[in-house]
Design brief:
The complex is a heterodimer of chains A (278) and B (124). With 278 residues, chain A is mainly alpha-helical. In chain A, 74% of the residues lie in helices and 4% in strands. Classes of the chains: A mainly alpha (278), B mainly alpha (124).
Chain lengths: 278, 124
């Protein structure tokens, strides 16, 4: 395979990763890493570096559209990010003391159960009349665009979501994984946000979390330009397209897509944990 | 006083312009790279560690000499910089609106980001 063929193929895969990342709030890493490692047999460190670039590019590519449309809840994003970065710091410090295989198995089971919960939730039938006291104090409630109108939503179970975000950061620090999955779940299942608000706010947050790791990746030479540039170009184009698509895709389909993707991530995590390659 | 809608629009503009600038650097660098190496066979050795030094100092040095690797690196740095700038913008906004709880939260995140980017160089 020539360098040109490799680059063009990678742009195509990365475009797909960008579209799915923009729609699900997971970033493109869940697609980029398996494609690079399993199909192109690329060094795992470079795959992780490319995954980081894809997360940054997805977050940046979708930010403008989601902010203008009024989906992203900035206050929730900042509030939960405090727990996420704190967890990531503690996780990085605990990395030598905790069994990664055990964590991987637990995390994969959480993902399977979450896929079920995501499919099961029918948010159209939920209409909360009160907010959690923390949500009121921190002014976390908001509105989102729905059929040429803006609907308001009330935020629930704030401490629970904050704890999940701390755990998400902890796992990200311990296992070196992206924490987009748990971010969406914390907002969807705990805060009970409308699904599109969860995925777009997750897209806002994953860029910040990824930026916290960027220094390490650059300093250690994990950003291979041959891999990073097609990924960046493909993901940016994909995330721009995904952000346009979000307005038109029914929430139900997004939930199904998200559940499929996190089930696949769960299987991947379980395999790594059982084979001792985590 | 700046409203949250104005803030959102300003941030959206930052991301539109920033992403396009970043993509332009990466695109030009990638194009230059392909002009040089497009017909070479992809070698396994090429994808092993330690071929490229992507430290901040080296990327800046390469970019000043208009090398393809340097231009791509600058584009990627711009992606990271946008995340830091957006937290900084939000911190200023919350400070100006006297929302000190969120100013503090943004300050904490900003500190972690800056420390992570400039302060840490080793893998745990």
């Amino acid at each position: 395979m020539t360098v040109l063929t490799f680059s063009l193929l990678l742009i195509v895969f990365s475009f797909l990763a960008g579209v799915i990342g923009a729609l699900t709030g997971l970033g493109g890493g869940v697609i980029v890493i398996p494609v690079l490692v399993l199909i192109f047999h690329i060094n795992i460190h470079y795959a992780m570096g490319a995954s980081l670039i894809s997360v940054l590019a997805t977050s940046s590519g979708t930010a403008a559209a989601y902010l203008r449309e009024g989906y992203t809840n900035l206050r929730i994003g900042i509030f939960l990010e405090v727990a996420a970065v704190t967890g990531a710091f503690i996780g990085a410090m605990l990395v030598a003391f905790i069994s990664k295989s055990f964590l991987g198995i637990v995390f994969s089971l959480v993902l399977f159960f979450s896929a079920y919960l995501t499919i099961k939730r029918k948010e159209d039938h939920e209409d909360y009349t009160t907010s959690h006291p923390w949500a009121t104090a921190l002014q976390l409630d908001g509105t989102y665009p729905y059929k040429n109108n803006f609907l308001s939503y009330r935020v629930q179970h704030v401490p629970f979501a904050f704890s999940i975000m701390g755990l998400a950061g902890l796992l990200a620090g311990l296992l070196g994984i992206g924490s987009g999955t748990l971010k969406v779940l914390a907002m969807d299942q705990a805060l009970r946000l409308p699904y599109k608000v969860s995925t777009t706010t997750s897209n806002f947050m994953i860029g910040i979390t990824a930026a916290a790791s960027a220094g390490i990746y650059f300093a250690n030479g994990y950003i291979n330009v041959l891999v990073a540039f097609p990924v960046m170009i493909g993901v940016v184009m994909g995330s721009f397209s995904g952000a346009k698509l979000l307005m038109y895709v029914h929430t139900r389909y997004l939930r199904v897509l998200f559940s499929i993707v996190i089930t696949l991530v769960g299987f991947q995590m379980l395999y790594k944990a059982l084979s001792g390659t985590l | 006083m700046m409203s949250i809608e104005t803030m959102r629009n300003e941030m959206a503009r930052l991301f539109t312009i920033g992403t396009l600038i970043s993509a332009a650097f990466v695109f030009v660098g990638g194009f230059m790279y392909l002009m040089q190496y497009s017909h070479e066979t992809l070698k396994v050795e090429l994808l092993q560690p330690s071929l490229y030094n992507t430290s901040i100092q080296v990327i800046l040095h390469e970019a000043l000499h208009f090398s393809s690797v340097g231009l791509i690196g600058i584009g990627l740095f711009a992606l990271v910089a946008m995340q830091i700038i957006r937290v900084g913008m939000l911190m200023c906004f919350y400070f100006m609106t006297h929302d000190y709880r969120f100013t503090l939260m943004c300050g904490f995140i900003l500190f972690i980001l800056l420390y992570s980017f400039f302060g840490r160089t080793k893998v745990y």
